[in-house]
Amino acid sequence: MRTEPHEQEFASWLLHLNNGTSKNDYQSGEYIVEVPEKCVLKESIVEEIFGSFVFDKDNLSGKAILSPNNEYSLKIN
């Protein structure tokens, strides 16, 4: 995952999460990950990523769906 230069705190959190060195004060025997509040979406993830134009059928009719192989794109299209 890429981060922007102004996202150093988030980049550090990702590295600790990936390396298994993130803070875990829970004694339950389970590894619990606390996600920063600013990373939690309260609204539609689709709108957050693609914007509201994703619901405009006329706008989407000329677009392509990219996928790792044709099998998936044929199922979606």
UniProtKB/TrEMBL annotation:
Keywords: ATP-binding, Helicase, Hydrolase, Nucleotide-binding. It comes from the Eukaryota. The keyword ATP-binding applies. One of its GO terms (molecular function) is helicase activity. This is ATP-dependent DNA helicase.
